[in-house]
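Curious: can you check?
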Amino acid sequence: MQSQPLPASVTPGNSAEVGQEPTSNRVEFIKTMGRLGKLTLLLGALWGLYYALHMGFPYIRNATDLIYEAKLEHAIRHPLFRDGVPCRVLILGHSQILSGFQPDRFDALAGTQVASYNMGLPDERRFVDNLEKLLASGQRPTHVFITCSWQPDRHSTRGIFNFIESDTEFLQAVFPFRRMPRDFVLFLLRARGHGGVAANYKYARKSVDDVVRDRGYYFIEGQSHYPGDRIPEDFRAAADNPNFVATREVRPEGQEFKRLMAMADKYDFQLYFVPVYGRPGQFAVPPVQNDETARAIKPYPRLHLLGPDYWIYPRRNFSDQLHVNRDGAAKFTEDLYQLTRGVLPPSAASGTTVP
């Protein structure tokens, strides 16, 4: 019987190399995993350091993020309305509401049976999500004033290689400190105008305290650059379109609309579209009522339309091109009370001096 030749790897001449290559690969793999482990520990330590700085020094953040986060967190964790008040008004919107609606003034006009809260947030139109969070936390408004429509359905791109619906929300959850280097530079620049680093930090903390004290109202001082917080009478902005009516588009469809109606039924509140405001020359004067919106919401008994899409206020009521000053906020609040008093408890005025 003829014998077969041995493979080269096990011939007598190279028997010392048997098993050497697998052992070498294993050692290299262990070294690679060790390097990856060290890198992971380093990145984890950096993440922990940045997160600790982010949480430990919250008032170096830019004003928009600071007010947004502080206001929403307070609204979720603390009662917004006085106990036993039968009429509880919550107004939702973006920064024009944040700087335009004064709950103390509104309540003084409306009386002891009414309590209101300003839930306007900077650069925010996704009010349905925030309303859902407030209701889940136990807040129970009876009247919800809205100034913009719900968002239309977004085309979902989620799939096996793109399972995150919103990159921004993911980054905010995993890296809430990602803007910290920029915020720190801006904080140092602002400190020059507020008496130094320590004074600027106290100023930012006071701004948050003021928002809590004023039940959501906030004068946007950081964007006011004119004497007396009043823009000039000849003020113009490049984006002004005096011949354009900025119509509020309302379509009773989509997932956000369905969620909103379901919340209104579950928690038994009414929804009212109310005006915002604009400058002379910014937009054209709108009709006294948006008939298209009125027709669109007519089949829905929990949806109501009050007034035009927006009011035009004199330039003296504005501190910048978009936001009213304190006098403008007082006027907007008083006008809003006069517009909505018919849906509030009748003759609820308490005689309290209007602030």
The beta strands are 87-93, 114-120, 143-146, 270-273, 276-278, 303-305, 310-312. The radius of gyration is 29 Å. Residues 20-56 form the longest helix (37 residues). The chain is about 40% helix and 10% strand.
